[in-house]
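Q: Hi! First time doing this. I have a protein sequence and I read that you can turn it into a structure. Is that right? Here it is:
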Amino acid sequence: MPRSCAVGGADALDPRATWADKDAYDETARRLAGMFRENFQQYEEYVTPQVLAAGPTPKLESRRPQVRSLGRLIRLSAGQPEEPVL
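A: Yes, that's right. Below is the predicted 3D structure, encoded as structure tokens:
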């Protein structure tokens, strides 16, 4: 996953920073994460625990939902190795 972008400024890779209404972004991200988890339930019996753990978690008490892990979920479900932590 890219960590910087020469075009678009520092906020180009932070979707929340592109929304004028941060609360609306947070609510939309939580709702989207919940919809993803709900839909993914039909596949849970076919995937490893690591794939299940990589999915987005719509934390209602959090201002910023944990939706960054969608890329990790996609990589794991495709059988790609985890990214090294640097």
